[in-house]
Amino acid sequence: MSVPADLNIDRIANLARIALTPEEKEKFSAQLADVLTNIEKLREVDVTGVEPTAHAFPIYNVWAEDVAQPGLSVEDALRNAPVQRDNMIVVPKVVD
Amino acid sequence: MNGSAVADPLASNLVSEGRPCHFPDPSRGFKCALGRDLPDNGVVSASPALVLILFPFSPVPDVPLHFQSVSELAALLEAKTITSVELTQAVIARTQAVEERIKAFNSYDAADALAQAAASDARRAAGQALGPLDGIPIGIKDVIAVTGQPLTASSKMLANFVSPYDATVTQKLKKAGAVVWGRLNLDEFAMGSSTENSAFHTTRNPYNLDCVPGGSSGGSAAALAAGEAIATLGSDTGGSIRQPAALCNVVGLKPTYGLVSRYGLIAFASSLDQIGPFTRTVEDAAITLQAIAGHDERDSTSVKIEIPDYRTALKTKKGPWRLGIPKEYFGEGLDPEVASAVEKAISYYEKLGCEIKNVSLPHTEYGVGVYYIIATAECSSNLSRYDGIRYGHRTADAKDIVDLYFKSRAEGFGPEVKRRIILGTYVLSSGYYDAYYLRAQKVRTLIRQDFLNAYNEVDAIITPTTPTPAFKRGAKADPLAMYLCDVYTIGANLAGLPGISVPCGFSSGGLPIGMQLIGQPFMEADLLAIANAYDSAHNWGRRTPEL
Predict the structure, then answer these.
(1) What is the average pLDDT across A30-50?
(2) Domain A1-44: which CATH class?
(3) CB pairs under 8 A, 24+ apart, for B400-404?
């Protein structure tokens, strides 16, 4: 199965913020081309005048009282942080 | 065809504690637990004497505790014949005996389970038992949060994550007194149909260790089938409860979208995900659903409706029902043995006086395509939270913050997750959104409409749950082939409908077969009653694998 010309795997991987190896790029391109070819079938369907469904049972305007609820303690909130110091999450320098 | 006690698979199960069961021979008569005869299986009648010998008291006495149903064990606990500690010890011992072969769990905490069991026994001794789940060990798929326990999604990304809070369903199970037991394996982030995508290990099918248990909730199905839990919870986005249930000979229920809170469920595709139970009987599914259903203000898609008494509905709703058979689900690709088992089940309903009607769901063939656009689009958005900053895997060598995102995600996610994020990102990207995502949402409307049209004529729809019985590990290396496994289950997710897989026989190779019933929105009481009419008369789910 050939890769569609418009499936630019570098562009997509960049948007998805995932570093792919050259092997992954090649493999995924071919596999996704297969899947996309299967998906092409959807073009047969006449969708004129059909509303899109985002949720089977849409619920709108869910309101809650504006009252503080108990949350996680600092210790619990930071328990899974990869690196922490002084009740903060440590990250690489963002601005020079 | 005389259904004699010796030839009866359930009977041998009853008399051989510790060496449970055999594969049933579908050509042979089979007596259900109540001793009723099964006309479609050729059993002419049940002798009262035989019933007396096999069932001197209720519930069934000689099935090992780890293979009994929730309803049976609830009665034993209530009668103080057993304690929750004894039951939990039996489940732990069984797990220790078979887990090396099944690999259903990512982890379990026996001490914690026994402490919960002791608390249950103390409640009961004080006359404060909480209901039928009090003291019953229930296994949890490793995408549902339990305070203080690991929550990994079977991903390297969350390999060291410990949950700081309970999912709503976990809270509800605890409130019902259940012993929250173990973290069950799955395809990474619930993406897959075999558990082969787990970053840790592949779970085995208890009926054939060379075969997959299905997925993504393969650990939940296999653990229950192997006697390592009394019931389990899973999640279902495109069939991830029903498909493994069918492949492992257990009941699996995906409720209507919005009936069960998703709070504390690791999100895959938020408009499709729903939590539901795996059980040995439909009655157990009703009991478990009762505990977890209901509105939750922490899930904004949770629906405010009155929750009926599902277990009572099994008795009060008697049919006869109008049942639809969609021709699109019985065509090319369907294994003949699966077709024949499901057709037998349909003819049983006919004998019960149900009206069997042919219906059409004309957009069925587009289901897989629609699903793989919508589910991957939603997953690419949901999984953007795994950036290596606040929790989850962080790369050890990042040049700067952006490099940290790229490398953490590259190292933390497995191939199937990456593939789906890439596909989802593509279908949402500028220039392709209308062609793929918007079109898929419109076809989703048509698929939903197909079902609603059918429900003008029928109360529920019967289909096979899967095109084939369990396949061998490694047999579907091609992602598209794996995606097509979900062809019969995806429709219920896209349309938001409740679906249940009920065991309905075995292949000649001894592999389980499941029948799917798809019901109307929020009418689980009816769906369960219809499913129970078959299940309580056949009890295929009470067969146990030889391990």
Answers:
(1) 91
(2) mainly alpha
(3) B400/A92, B400/A93, B401/A91, B401/A92, B401/A93, B401/A94, B402/A17, B404/A91, B404/A92
